[in-house]
């Protein structure tokens, strides 16, 4: 069988799987084995999703979640990349921060949510800080190893050709470390996305996709819940594939660096 | 790279290993002392209300009290058991599904669409749904941790089995290996580094969400529940003690499990990390 026929068969089978899974779910939902409020039919979920999109509430929630996650992620990138580079370039900085980082890193970001809630109350500050905490470490660690992994021959060659500190950093070290930094940011964003949903559930504010899901549980609105889960999945997927995929193409491939580490 | 900081003066007598170890220990302890001192100063200065920002002694006292009374160990053990049993569930199903997907085109076509739809959704988003379906409590928490940590294991096992060189499979077959021996002696060892990586990622994922799941699922015992419950009574010192235990468990996982697996797989691959 040739490759194309095989691919076509794969697509057909995938479609059949999804159709069967949907049909099973639908049958289970209609059978009333679980109460309908807990397991709404697929058309109900789609209707809810459409209604929430139409009245704009879904955009409001998604917007709140996105602004929190992006703010936290940008802060995490700033902290992680700066500290990572400093740690890799200056030994005393590494000596001071490495033990702290290794001690803090294994603490899951969610375990700090109750503490942050006490300190900063419920709402945006807590959520953003949890995102910041969750996303910083992968970025920091990858930047640190990336800068250390820059080929010493490049440094010496650039030095021999008379590159100053400034030029060396922008033209050699940063591009050399970029595959690692981008991998770190990618991992960091995944963590941030998980963290924001969890933090919104626990440190409930008024808006946000995580909050909607958790709030819907109280009112047994499983359709709202499933609709929000779909939106969360789509946004996460778009960021992972589209945004980071194109950043990677624009930077790493343009600079002629092969992708060394895989997320 | 780590050794770059130790300067040996030529001609000077070599430093004894003991003194060197002390120096490293002191260097590692120094940042903690600085941070601890800053914490103490802030706590004493009363920048934040005392209840919300206890001194380190109070945290230590409450840690000792909770440990002696057996409350903290009970919570910690429940959490570890939940982590391990959820992970075991994920390992069995994850490796099973992943290997089948890697071996059979039909299984791959069937499972891949489901996995690629379910995997990118952050695991915690499923929490309320699981709580609705299975009721709050330990069972839902266990299922959720297992379900969420299954995906990295599936992905890596699948990739690992597909990465086994075709030529190994063919040569084993031409030497008369039946399916069972082929699987046991060729495919499994070939895919093992990937599978181990998947298990490591799965365990890390399980650990990261477990605490949050315990907070949301209102389990009777567990560190997540301990720190979440402590918030209600403004027991910041108990909360900090709980977080400290979480950090210790996390550190043990990191040092005793993840790094061991990493070393093992790297040795097997014959690769070096940067």
Would you mind describing this structure in some detail?
The complex is a heterodimer of chains A (263) and B (274). Chain A has 263 residues and is mostly helical. Chain A is 80% helix and 0% strand. Chain A contains ten helices and no strands. In chain A, helix 2 (42-54) crosses helix 10 (222-253) and helix 3 (57-89) crosses helix 4 (91-104). The longest helix of chain A is centred in the C-terminal third of the chain and has 38 residues, at 165-202. The two termini of chain A are 34 Å apart. The model of chain A is unreliable at 258-263 (pLDDT under 50). Chain B is mostly helical and 274 residues long. In chain B, 78% of the residues lie in helices and 0% in strands. Chain B has ten helices and no strands. Chain B is globular, with a radius of gyration of 24 Å. Chain B starts with 16 loop residues before the first helix and ends in a 5-residue tail after the last helix. At the A-B interface, helix 1, helix 4, helix 5, helix 8 and helix 9 of A face helix 1, helix 4, helix 5, helix 8 and helix 9 of B.
Secondary structure topology:
The complex is a heterodimer of chains A (263) and B (274).
Chain A: H1 3-31, H2 42-54, H3 57-89, H4 91-104, H5 113-120, H6 124-148, H7 152-160, H8 165-202, H9 209-218, H10 222-253
Helix pairs in contact in A: 2-10, 3-4, 3-6, 3-8, 3-9, 5-6, 6-8, 8-9, 8-10, 9-10
Chain B: H1 17-45, H2 56-68, H3 71-103, H4 105-118, H5 127-134, H6 138-163, H7 166-174, H8 179-216, H9 223-232, H10 236-269
Helix pairs in contact in B: 2-10, 3-4, 3-6, 3-8, 3-9, 5-6, 6-8, 7-8, 8-9, 8-10, 9-10
């Amino acid at each position: 069988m040739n490759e194309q026929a095989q691919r076509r068969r794969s697509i057909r089978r995938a479609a059949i799987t999804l159709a069967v899974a949907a049909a099973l779910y639908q049958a289970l939902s209609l059978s009333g084995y679980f109460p309908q409020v807990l397991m709404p039919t697929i058309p109900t979920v789609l209707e809810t999703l459409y209604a929430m999109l139409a009245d704009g509430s879904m955009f409001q929630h998604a917007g709140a979640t996105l602004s929190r996650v992006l703010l936290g992620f940008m802060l995490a990138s700033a902290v992680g990349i700066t500290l990572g580079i400093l740690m890799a370039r200056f030994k005393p900085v590494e000596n001071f921060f490495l033990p702290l980082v290794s001690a803090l890193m294994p603490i899951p970001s969610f375990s700090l949510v109750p503490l942050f809630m006490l300190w900063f109350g419920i709402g945006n500050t807590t959520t953003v800080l949890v995102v910041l905490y969750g996303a910083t470490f992968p970025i920091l660690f990858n930047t640190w190893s990336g800068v250390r992994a820059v080929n010493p021959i490049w440094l010496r060659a650039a030095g021999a050709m008379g590159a100053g500190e400034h030029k060396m950093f922008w033209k050699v070290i940063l591009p050399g470390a970029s595959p690692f930094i981008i991998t770190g940011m990618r991992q960091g964003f995944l963590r941030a996305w998980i963290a924001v949903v969890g933090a919104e559930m626990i440190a409930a504010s008024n808006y946000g996709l995580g909050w909607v899901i958790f709030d819907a549980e109280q009112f047994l609105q499983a359709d709202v819940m499933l609709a929000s889960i779909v939106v969360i999945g789509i946004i996460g997927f778009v960021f992972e594939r589209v945004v980071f995929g194109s950043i990677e193409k624009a930077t790493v491939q343009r600079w002629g660096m092969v992708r060394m580490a895989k997320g | 790279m780590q050794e770059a900081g130790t300067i040996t003066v030529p001609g000077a007598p070599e430093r004894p290993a003991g003194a060197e170890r002390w120096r490293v220990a002191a260097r590692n302890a120094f940042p903690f002392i600085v941070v601890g001192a800053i914490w103490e100063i802030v706590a004493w200065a009363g920048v934040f209300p005392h209840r919300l920002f206890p001194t380190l002694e109070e945290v230590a006292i409450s840690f000792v009290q909770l440990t002696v009374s057996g409350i903290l160990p009970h919570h910690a053990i429940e959490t570890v058991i939940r982590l391990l049993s959820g992970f075991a569930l994920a390992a069995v199903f994850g490796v099973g599904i992943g290997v089948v997907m890697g071996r059979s085109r039909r299984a791959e076509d069937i499972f891949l669409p489901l996995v690629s739809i379910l995997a990118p959704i952050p695991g915690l988003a499923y929490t309320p749904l699981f709580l609705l379906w299975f009721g709050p409590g330990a069972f839902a928490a266990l299922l959720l941790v297992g379900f969420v940590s299954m995906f990295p294991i599936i992905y890596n096992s699948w990739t690992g089995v597909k990465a086994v060189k075709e030529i190994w499979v063919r040569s084993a077959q031409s030497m008369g290996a039946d399916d069972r021996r082929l699987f046991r002696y060729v495919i499994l060892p070939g895919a093992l580094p990937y599978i181990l990586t998947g298990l490591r990622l799965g365990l890390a994922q399980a650990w990261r969400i477990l605490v949050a799941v315990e907070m949301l699922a209102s389990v009777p015992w567990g560190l997540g529940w301990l720190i979440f419950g402590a918030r209600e009574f403004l027991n910041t010192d108990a909360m900090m003690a709980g977080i400290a235990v979480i950090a210790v468990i996390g550190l043990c996982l990191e040092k005793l499990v993840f790094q061991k697996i990493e070393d093992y797989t790297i040795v097997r691959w014959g690769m070096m990390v940067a």
